[in-house]
Amino acid sequence: MGQKFLKLIDKENISLSSDIYRFERSDGSAFEFVGGQYVILNLGNDADGKSIKRAYSILSSDSKADSFQICVKRLGTGKASSILPKLELGAELEYSGPWGKFVGDPTWPTPGFSLILATDTGITSLAGLLLSKKFSDRLDSTITVWFKTKEEDFLSEKDLRNLLSGISNFPNIFQIPSISDPDRISAVLEILKSILGDCTVPENAFLSGDGNILREVRSELIRLGTLESRIGMEAFFNTQRNPSPVASFGV
Ligand SMILES: Cc1cc2nc3c(=O)[nH]c(=O)nc-3n(C[C@H](O)[C@H](O)[C@H](O)COP(=O)(O)OP(=O)(O)OC[C@H]3O[C@@H](n4cnc5c(N)ncnc54)[C@H](O)[C@@H]3O)c2cc1C
Questions:
Q1: Sheet holding 142-148, edge to edge
Q2: Model pTM?
Q3: In angstroms, what CA-CA distances link 153 with 13, 49, 57, 181?
Q4: How many angstroms is it from 47 CA to the middle of ligand 1?
Q5: 175-187 residue pLDDT tens
Q6: From atom 35 of ligand 1, which residue's Cα is the shortest distance away?
Q7: Among 103, 164, 180, 189, fewest CB within 10 Å belongs to which?
Q8: According to CATH, what is the number of the domain 101-237?
Q9: In which residue ranges of the chain is CATH 2.40.30.10 found?
Q10: 179 CB near ligand 1 (under 6 Å)
């Protein structure tokens, strides 16, 4: 298949650590996707000649196909996240996608209660799902949770409210220990336990963000009775299992 290109048409620095970018297809054709999906951007080669291809979840609603937005965290030493803020409007990038078979599956979510859970930068795919056509009539039976380390990290609550204006179901936001803190996973599992409480076991779940947390949350959901086939998961970082101790609900 031939190469596909996107043109940068808008960018906004929204905090010390994040920028929102808007792209359209360079050939002017529509960019069709399903909320929660992501694109892979090709940001050129590094000093060793290795290509810098990175995935970014689409933040904007899938009801708008003329352009779309992503939000990228500046990671200091990160390769792609250092190149993106320097891009000029009109710059063109090769891309592939949209990707994300799980959210793209028209049979998901099945009827019943859904849980959408994000940590850190995973809020982008949570927002994409909340704004999606497929969740528009499902919001009353969906609970959304965002775990982040500090209020000012990545997106502030105010920025998120702007992005999700018109959506009745605003995420429950909880602050959790930093990424390197050994108590991070247990903190999330405790909060999750209190949120789910005695309510129905989620029929559907989508988890995005820190892979170390998501793997444990997925195990707990399966233990509670959610079918594994109805749990989608996208690890944005900590994609490989690391050897830190496993926490659990302890029930
Ligand atoms: C499906 C998918 C969707 C994604 N969507 C987004 C998105 O919407 N917004 C976004 O900013 N990123 C997103 N990412 C992460 C993104 O692909 C890059 O990994 C990230 O931008 C770092 O790339 P880099 O080249 O700047 O850093 P690199 O040079 O690759 O290295 C940076 C290091 O930081 C780690 N890292 C990556 N992300 C984080 C983070 N959030 N917090 C702490 N450490 C991190 C990496 O694991 C790596 O060890 C997504 C990843 C996946 C797999």
A1: 172-175, 142-148, 114-119, 204-210, 231-237
A2: 0.95
A3: 13, 32, 17, 16
A4: 19
A5: 999 999 999 999 9
A6: 237
A7: 180
A8: 3.40.50.80
A9: 4-99
A10: yes
Backbone angles phi, psi at 65, to 5 degrees: -110, 0
Q: List where CATH 3.40.50.80 sits in the chain.
A: 101-237
Strand partners, 70: 21
121 touches ligand 1 (CB under 6 Å): yes
Q: Whose CA is nearest to atom 9 of ligand 1?
A: 72
For atom 43 of ligand 1, the residue with the nearest CA is 237
Distances, alpha carbon 107 to alpha carbons 50, 125, 228, 230, 242, in Å? 38, 18, 15, 10, 33
For domain 4-99, give the CATH number: 2.40.30.10
Candidate from 56, 69, 124 with most ligand 1 atoms within 8 A of CB, to mutate:
56
Query: Which residue carries 């959304």 as its tokens?
Result: 144
Structure tokens that stand for 220 in this block: 């707990």
pLDDT tens digit sequence for 133-154: 999 999 999 999 999 998 888 9
Q: Which amino acid is at 125?
A: S
Of 89, 141, 153, 79, nearest to 116 (Cα)? 141
